[in-house]
Design goal:
Pfam families: Aminotran_1_2. Its cofactor is pyridoxal 5'-phosphate. With 385 residues, this protein is α/β, with parallel strands linked by helices. It is built from 13 helices and 14 strands. Strands 2-9-8-7-6-3-4-5 form an 8-stranded mixed beta sheet, with helices on both faces. The protein has a 4-stranded antiparallel beta sheet with strand order 10-11-14-13. A two-stranded parallel sheet has the order 1-12. Helix 4 runs parallel beside helix 5. The relative contact order is 0.18. The structure holds pyridoxal-5'-phosphate. The site of pyridoxal-5'-phosphate has 16 residues, from helix 4 and helix 8.
Length: 385
């Protein structure tokens, strides 16, 4: 293999393998987390209009002013968080580039980046690209949900920590961190004077009346926190790759130094369309989130009926299920069998961890799919019982 050592662990992904298997067996793909319906019509029209009216060249490096203003306004309206659109908001090529830019721009080689395990793979890859070291804080399986291990949090975050990455609502478990968790994270980050990167791409997709609280709203946190979000999950446009990062100007400048030489800019005609969506389509998002809650209920009920141990999903596109009652003890093996066996694809949670012990069995299903698709998947899953 010619790939540099630090990236060798990232040269192939289980998601690609499962999607390939899904395609081979014409399976319903509940592995990859993308929606199968389009976002708000006004937003789609605004992108077409932007292309038709010649907004097809490089936008300004930090993003078009209208979008930076809309991102700042959105955070003020929803959370009372104030960011200067000129210096404290940066538009990126999806949340992925925001994450990479922040880690590469702010973490020195050899420094430590702490993340919650299971973790979204981009945090680990960006940490490796920065030549930094990954340290994990496990979630613990707690009844039908998951809990943050506060002892592990306190052990992991030390004065040697450069950055803590927090993802809530959490992919792959669907966990929304509690106020108590957020307070504990804030305290330990303040005590050790570390930076925090919060991945909040599912900020609007929370269920059962829960509210999402950005960590940056806690006392003493705004000045050390970089908040990341993206249009992809909020507005069903994962292919547009429009993301953003907000925080103190000095931290944004660091992320921008890296971002400039990864892509310089991206998503030209999509930027004005997302500005429109942030301004006028939050009612669409509320309906979308209510629809996702119903889809969560559909898939959870179907999995329970088949005999899976089903975990509580409090937000996101995902629910985790335990196939051990059906006789499968290895989630990865189960996922490799599933497309050929019944025509459904899922991904093993072990793909998101360094310490597989408590995660070997667990499987993640994505439910941001049309109801008919979920019903069809449910029908196929019944063949397992
Ligand atoms: C999908 C996802 C991302 C990536 O977002 P993009 O805007 O597509 O780059 C980042 N973090 C989490 C937790 C995700 O699920």
């Amino acid at each position: 293999m010619r790939t540099v050592k630090r990236l060798q662990p990232f040269s192939s992904t289980i998601f690609a393998e499962m999607s390939q298997l899904a395609a081979e067996h014409d399976a319903i793909n509940l592995g990859q987390g993308f929606p199968d319906t389009d976002g708000p019509a006004a937003m789609l029209a605004a992108a077409q209009e932007a292309i038709a009216t010649g907004q097809n060249q490089y936008p300004p490096g930090p993003g078009i002013p209208a979008l930076r203003e809309a991102v700042a306004q959105h955070q003020l309206d929803h959370y009372g968080l104030q960011y200067d659109p000129a210096t404290e908001v940066l538009i990126t090529v999806g949340a992925t580039e925001a994450i990479a830019g922040a880690i590469i721009g702010l973490v020195e080689p050899g420094e430590r980046v702490v993340m919650i395990e299971p973790y979204y793979d981009a945090y680990a890859a960006a940490t490796a690209m920065a030549g930094a070291e990954r340290v994990t804080i496990p979630l613990i399986i707690d009844g039908d949900g998951f809990a943050l291990d506060h002892d592990a949090l306190h052990a992991a975050v030390t004065p040697e920590t450069a950055m803590v990455v927090i993802n809530s609502p959490h992919n792959p478990t669907g966990t929304v961190l509690s106020d108590e968790d957020l307070r504990a994270i804030a305290q330990v980050c303040i005590d050790n004077d570390v930076l925090v990167l919060t991945d909040e791409v599912y900020e609007h997709l929370v269920f059962d009346g829960r509210v999402h609280t950005p960590l940056a709203t806690l006392p003493g946190m705004r000045e050390r926190t970089l908040r990341v979000s993206s249009a992809g999950k909020t507005f069903n446009v994962t292919g547009w790759k429009v993301g953003w990062i907000s925080g103190p100007a000095e931290l944004i400048a660091a992320a921008r130094a890296a971002k400039q030489f990864m892509s310089f800019v991206g998503s030209g005609p999509f930027q004005p369309a997302i500005a429109v969506a942030l301004g006028t389509e939050m009612e669409w998002v509320r309906r979308s989130s209510a629809g996702l809650q119903r889809k969560r209920d559909l898939i959870s009920a179907a999995l329970t009926e088949v005999g899976f141990g089903v975990h509580r999903s409090e937000g996101t596109y995902f629910v985790c299920a335990d196939p051990r009652p059906l006789g499968y003890h290895d989630g990865a093996e189960f996922c490799r069998d599933l497309p050929a066996r019944i025509g459904v694809a899922a991904v093993p949670v072990s793909a998101f961890v360094d310490h597989p012990e408590q995660w070997t069995h667990l499987v993640r299903f994505a439910f941001a799919k049309e109801d008919t698709v979920i019903e069809q998947a449910a029908e196929r899953l019944r063949a397992l019982s």
